[in-house]
Amino acid sequence: MQKPTLLILTFSIFQLFSFSQSSKIDSLEAQLKNHPDDVSTEFEIGVYHYKKGDYDQSLKALNDVAEKAAQKKNNPLLSKAYTNIGNVFADKGENTKALEFYQKALKIAESSSDKKNTASLLKNIGILYVTWKKFPEALDFYKKAETIALEIKDSSLLADCFNSNGVVFEQQQKYDEALSAYNAALSFYLKNNPDNVAMEYTNMAIVYKLKKDYASSVDYNLKAIDIATKSGNKWFASAVFNNIGNLYVELGDTKKAIDYCTKSLTIAKEIKAAEILINVYETLADAYAKKGDYNTALSYQKQLAAEKDKFISAESTRQLNEMQVKYETVKKDNEITKLQNEKAINTLKLNEQNLLIQKRNYLLFVVFLLLTLLTGGTLLWRSRMKLKNKIANDKAIKDTEETERLRIAKDIHDDLGSGLSKINFLSEIIYSKSENLPEIRNSSESVKETAKKMIENMRDLIWALNPDNNTLPNLVARMREYTTDYLEGLPIEVKYHLQENIPNVAINKDYHRELFMVVKESLNNISKHAHASLITFTVEVEDNLFEITIQDNGKGFNENTVKKGNGLRNMQNRIVNLGGTFDIVSEINKYTEIKVTVPLLKLVKK
Amino acid sequence: MDIKVGIVEDEYQIRESLLILINGSEGFSCINGFESAEDAIKAIPSLELDVVLMDIHLPGKNGIECIAELKPLCPNTQFVMCTAFEDTDSVFNALKAGASGYLTKTTQPSKILDSIVDVYKGGSPMSSNIARKIVASFQQNNTQNTELKKLSEREQQILELLSKGLRYKEIADKLFLSTETVRTHIRNIYEKLQVNSRTEALNKVFPK
Fold first, then answer.
1. Where is A594: in which H helix or E strand?
2. How far is A68 from chain B (nearest CA, A)?
């Protein structure tokens, strides 16, 4: 269920984060305007757009550069252009295309014996193979890259290769090999590239966690945190705090887990790092769930869902912006065409005056038509997208709660279910094998009882979480079923007076549980204390009041002298809190009657 | 004659303790335990078992898929789905796939043996939740039901009472039937449900 978070592949993210100023692009563009044939400036523009994440503009510039470089047989530039086109596609997730361009670039780099580029291309191709989970191939490419890096003594490239190797080993679950690869990378980074040291510590912490060597994992995480706080890299610090929190959840130390997560959360909120927020909310939900505080866990689950939604809508905003940029680009192109057309018209003017006017009008008309269509289309598209997003959002909010409920129910079922069944069976075995060991026999029996109780509570919870079950008639049916089953084998008879045509309304799940608890607790009391032979179970709906009455013919109690047990008092409190009434009346040696009424309006799910 | 039982359960301890329980009880013989659906599918058709206890969560194919594959191969074997908390959807899907019953793994051992005998003798448990799901499922397929796949009036009556929370004995008393008869009706309802689900699946492959 838990992921080792997002820190394993942080190279490109760091590059992205250290990137900056927009004034640079203006000067680059000005330069290009003055020297339209300056391909190296155009190349820089392409790289700039790539790093900013404007992939379309980047591809446009880089493709142009590649074309010109090919014409001029400028191989080094061509190779660089192909490499960066590959990078763009890799970032966009179009890995096959990325591979195609890397290979083109590699061919050139190899033929011109550009070793540094060859090695880094081999490494990049290796990373692509990792995403396809073709690990042996990936390792092959890394190996080649490593050999060249050694040859040209490029230690930072070598360290990158080691780190990449580590990532592969980690995914192959060869943790010891992963560790030694990371260690090797670390020793290089320590000497030459302090920026990557913290990342390496984190990678190692993750592997130790996977190895279940939690002490070492904590150690390395703390080292990473130390560096991150000193260097002031808040994004990284927040991510590592979350990782530590995650670790403590696994260790079962929920208090520490929550402490660290809170630190992570504070920073993540401050720097608005959505991808970390999502992780922290998840960790917090896990921590509180482990602590048994399901309310808080649920509220973090909700925040998680909300944050994911936001993330998605942020993504669609980004896409929208991208479309906008595309549109602007096309518009600019059109304007250029328009200018060129006008130029052409001017030349024609010298020859045929008459034809000119006709043609010009015609051309302008076409251009105008094109522009109108384009603008109209884009506006239409945007407003449709907006509407679509809004509808999707509204629906998502409604769906989220339902899905969350089902998801939690399923998780509880799958995880706790098999665990509890196992406890149940194991305690049974211990019980049967401990005939001569009374102490062990007693404990195993109480383990068995506890497991059984938990299982029963879980069953009720799951039942109540299933939206199919949330109607009033279904609740009554379940009460009846439970009562019959409970009394089976006991010398107590039961008579039901259940009103026909109980309103078929969906009811609030809180009521659901509380009302069902009343039945369970009452049956428990009757079978333990009342010495009754008959129970009368009545359900009525009258004057918009839903009423359950459970009466037994047992020994009763004196309401003034007998103190109500905790169970009864708790029930009473809960029903009253929900806006209902709870009454218990008894007469010695005659009867005891529990009556619960709740206004129907309150019961109905809103 | 002993009731021949098989167990498909991936948790070693649970499998072993079920084996011990069943092998140690009079009137039962537990032929084999399997830890995956794939193993079970290979071995069970030739074993002529009476009852198979099937876990829902298995590595690889799950228990429901396993029943769906095995039931046509061994129509005389009764499959019992084992769940942790009797969650309605899984149980219902298992019943559609060909299971004749279900039990929770947390029931007392003696009750597990009772359930096996019950299923072997032609009985099938049905809770109010499941009854409601079955009613809904038959209503959905109403238009294309041939006579054979329709529920009889009696069966509909029984389902309605079950969905209100009545137990077999209560239903038998109310309808002046024997509990045995009620049980037979319920087994028949399950069989119709399975026929229905198979048509459903066929209709998906050859859309009308």
1. strand A591-599
2. 55
Distance between A510 CA and the closest CA of chain B, angstroms:
20
Residue extents of the structural domains in chain A: 308-466, 470-603
Question: Going by C-beta distance under 8 Å and a sequence separation of 6 or more, which residues neighbour residue A310?
Answer: A274
Whether the domain at B3-120 and the domain at B128-205 fall into the same CATH topology: no
Please report the pLDDT score of residue A496 as a whole number. Answer: 94
Average model confidence (pLDDT) for chain A?
79
Assigned CATH topology for domain B128-205: Arc Repressor Mutant, subunit A (1.10.10)
The more confidently predicted of residues A523 and A512 is A523
> Is the CB of B17 less than 8 angstroms away from the CB of A421?
no
Q: Do A466 and B87 touch (CB under 8 A)?
A: yes
Degrees, nearest 5: CA angle B79-B84-B85: 105
The shortest CB-CB distance from B165 to any of A422, A469, A476 is to A476
CA–CA dist A221, A244 (Å, integer): 7
Q: In a mutagenesis test of the A interface, which of B16, B19, B55, B85 is the best target, namely the one with the most A β-carbons within 10 Å?
A: B85
Q: Which of residues 485-524 of A touch B (CB under 8 A)?
A: 485, 498
CB within 8 Å: A481 and B17: no
Give the model's confidence band at A243: pLDDT under 50 very low, under 70 low, under 90 confident, else very high.
confident
**What's the token pair of residue A80?**
């660089």
pTM, two decimals, is 0.49
Nearest CA-CA distance, residue B107 and chain A, Å: 9
A455/B85 Cβ within 8 A = yes
Q: What is the CATH number of domain B3-120?
A: 3.40.50.2300
Mean of the pLDDT values across residues A128-143? 84
Mean pLDDT is highest, among A256-260, A348-352, A565-569, for A256-260
Q: Domain A470-603 falls in which CATH fold?
A: Heat Shock Protein 90 (3.30.565)
Of A409, A414, A477, the CB nearest to B163: A477
Domain boundaries along the sequence of chain B? 3-120, 128-205
Q: Between A191 and B93, whose confidence is greater? A: B93
- Rounded to an integer, what is the distance from CA B185 to the centroid of its chain? 14
pLDDT tens string A97-107: 888 899 889 88
% of chain A residues with pLDDT over 70: 79
B160 touches chain A (CB under 8 A): no
Strands B101-104 and B78-83 turn out to be parallel
Structure tokens belonging to residue A569:
């008092």
Q: Which of A81, A72, A24 is nearest to A48 (CA)?
A: A24
Buried b (16+ CB within 10 A) or exposed e, A107-121: ebbeeeebeebbbbb
All residues of chain B having their beta carbon less than 8 Å from the beta carbon of residue A498 are: 164
Angstroms from A282 CA to nearest CA on chain B: 25
ipTM of the complex as predicted: 0.80
State mean pLDDT over A438-451.
82
Contact assessment for residue A593 and residue A549, using Cβ atoms and an 8 Å cutoff: yes
